[in-house]
Design brief:
Layout lengths: L23 H17 L3 H15 L7 H30 L5 H11 L1
Helix pairs in contact: 1-2, 2-3, 3-4
Length: 112
């Protein structure tokens, strides 16, 4: 028995490829745009979750050209930077209600 195959005409088990659930273009056109939209609409926790999801999906993304591999590496960097920035903003918002000297100091550190 073979799992669902990407190339159903192939009968050799070693050459049969599994179906790709997500490809690079679908990540860029759908999920990345949703993450950007959540970021601009100030839904920071949702945006952070979406960028993490994209990052996890990139681990299993298959590319066929060297140029796509470069784009995947660039997208990993973009997701990493967005996750870092959004996490800092979430932390800053949590500390924002603390009026103590330590809270103000921490809020200024996170804002910087």
């Amino acid at each position: 028995m073979l799992p669902v195959r990407r190339n159903p005409s192939e009968n050799d088990k070693r050459k049969a490829l599994p179906v790709l659930v997500k490809n690079f273009q679908s990540l860029i056109s759908k999920e990345l745009q949703e993450a950007y939209k959540a970021t601009t609409s100030n839904k920071i926790t949702e945006a952070c979750t979406l960028f993490r999801s994209i990052l996890h999906s990139l681990l299993l993304t298959v590319v066929t050209q060297a140029s796509e591999a470069e784009e995947v590496m660039q997208l990993v960097g973009v997701c990493r930077e967005y996750i870092l920035g959004l996490s800092i903003e979430l932390s800053r918002r949590e500390v924002q209600n603390d009026a103590s000297a330590e809270g103000i100091k921490r809020m200024l550190e996170l804002a910087a």
